[in-house]
Design a protein that fits this description.
Blueprint: H1 3-32, H2 40-44, E1 76-81, E2 88-96, E3 106-113, E4 121-124, E5 129-132, E6 135-137, E7 145-147
Antiparallel strand pairs: 1-2, 2-3, 3-6, 4-5, 6-7
């Protein structure tokens, strides 16, 4: 084998070796299979044949979560008021996290939902009942949701 050929074979093996087996498989797939790409109309939701909403990137939950106060030194509560009446509609109580493996500094102890509407509910999967507002999301309650006690509802 001439020296040039041996050098080419050696460099080819080192490239394939650096890519690993997966790189060699991907290279062979690109060479043997045709590329398939969805049209942009389908991805953006502008296609007439599909009745769908546009694809949302970086989808943030529509639920307005209460955020703990990062400057707090110990257990604390944060709340949200109704902009018209000024009454507290939601509150959540936090304490310093007890799990050392969880990177979040705060954990929720309980959350109250009381928007004033009687038709909003959460389903308790364990008890198999709808729990209407005012209700409390309590990790210690059976099923995680329970009706609010009288003393838990803000005046």
């Amino acid at each position: 084998m001439p020296a040039q050929t041996a050098g080419l074979v050696d460099s080819g093996l080192s490239i394939a070796g650096s890519m690993g087996g997966l790189g060699a498989i991907r290279t062979s797939q690109l060479a043997t299979f045709p590329k398939f790409r969805l049209p942009n109309e389908i991805l953006t939701g502008r296609c007439k044949s599909f009745n769908s909403t546009p694809l949302k990137l970086n989808n943030i939950s529509s639920r307005n979560r209460l955020v703990p106060n990062l400057k707090a030194k110990g257990p604390h509560s944060v709340f949200r008021r109704n902009s018209l009446s000024g009454k507290v509609t939601h509150y959540e109580t936090f304490r310093p996290h007890t799990n050392p493996f969880d990177p979040k500094p705060w954990e929720s102890i309980k959350r109250l939902d009381n928007s004033g509407r009687g038709d909003i509910s959460h389903f308790n999967k364990v008890l198999k009942v709808e729990v209407f507002e005012p209700h409390v999301h309590d990790p210690h309650a059976l099923g995680g949701v329970r009706p609010a006690d009288y003393w838990e509802i803000p005046k």
